[in-house]
Amino acid sequence: MPNVIVIIPAYNEEKTIDSVINNIKRVNKDVDILVVNDGSSDKTSLIAKNNGVTVIDLPFNLGIGGCMQTGYKYAYRYGYDIAIQIDADGQHDARFIDKLIKPILEDKADLVIGSRYVSKTNYKGSYLRRTGSYFFTLLLKALTGKAIYDTTSGFRAANRKVIKYFSESYPQDYPEVEVVARLSKSGFKIMEIPVEMYERLGGRSSINFRRSIYYMVKVTLAILINCIKTKEQQKA
Amino acid sequence: MFFNVYSFSLIFSILFLVIIVVEIKKGNLLEKYSLFWIFFSIVMIVISANLRFLNLLSRMLHIYYAPSVLFLLGLLFIISYCFHLTLIISKQTESIVKLTQEVAILKNMVEKSSRDVEGGKGD
């Protein structure tokens, strides 16, 4: 049985963190759980610690990229074979963890993305969100030749090779889409599997309506800039 | 020499160079960040003190009002130095992120091992 770690990046998620951890524990007893607390000002860290999981407290708020990378660095250092990232707001269903790691165990993929759009699920995102998502799918397809439908999904599983890559290099702001571009450019196998997603249980999306346009421009620029970077530069 | 834009620029540049040297000596300014400034003040001193050179330069650039060359040089320098600073900030941001992650992981390891030690005592 491979060593599996579930990384939960959390910033002020005291309302949901406990149930997210409990859900993972209930459906999957063999995995280790790591909460990376990104400088929360609420009780997120304390609640997670009381639940008996490993907690890494960042001394201040690094943002989702730096926070996620901390988890991957930990996973790499402690020799985990598979790392799963799952949101702390309850959007993702822990029951799909087994499905998510299956392609990795069968050596069919290096990174598996839990996707809302591969087949019909109950998830109904806002119109803007789906349009934005579609735009990134087209952009990635133009740049890498590969169609990935849910580029912004934060429910993912990575094998040891990707864990190593992430621990060395991970984009700092809005990393989800950029990471997919980088990986597929570097020749990693990426696979999407359909999962159910829920509306967030609590907390606020890090991307609210007003900032969506800024998000799209920024991510697009980041991906385009990334295209002119060499592999070595990405690692710096 | 009477007081005009050139003598003002000359006096200011010399004063500036003196301040840079004093700050380096006091340890308030790292040498690697001061090189750019030292270079700039020397260029300004040379140009301000050398009116013939300034006039030649302005004719070459088709600038009809010679002191504009001074403004142009100053402006270009400020833009490039701003850029230089952004490069430094980017590098430092990267270092800070790495340090922060390292500190957080180490803190977790220390807590874990001190818990293990306490647990061992209880047995």
How would you portray this structure in words?
The complex is a heterodimer of chains A (236) and B (123). With 236 residues, chain A is of the alpha/beta class. Chain A has helices spanning 17-27, 44-50, 64-77, 97-105, 127-144, 160-168, 175-185, 212-228, 231-235, and strands at residues 4-10, 32-37, 54-57, 82-85, 111-115, 156-159, 190-194. Chain A has a single domain, classed as Spore Coat Polysaccharide Biosynthesis Protein SpsA, Chain A (Alpha-Beta Complex), CATH 3.90.550. Chain A is built from nine helices and seven strands. Chain A has a seven-stranded mixed β-sheet with strand order 3-2-1-4-6-5-7, sandwiched between helices. The model of chain A has no long low-confidence stretch (mean pLDDT 86). Chain B is mainly alpha-helical. Chain B has one domain. Chain B has helices spanning 5-26, 31-49, 51-60, 67-122. Classes of the chains: A alpha/beta (236), B mainly alpha (123). The interface between A and B is medium-sized, with 17 and 10 residues.
Topology diagram in text:
The complex is a heterodimer of chains A (236) and B (123).
Chain A: E1 4-10, H1 17-27, E2 32-37, H2 44-50, E3 54-57, H3 64-77, E4 82-85, H4 97-105, E5 111-115, H5 127-144, E6 156-159, H6 160-168, H7 175-185, E7 190-194, H8 212-228, H9 231-235
Parallel strand pairs in A: 1-2, 1-4, 2-3, 5-7
Antiparallel strand pairs in A: 4-6, 5-6
Chain B: H1 5-26, H2 31-49, H3 51-60, H4 67-122
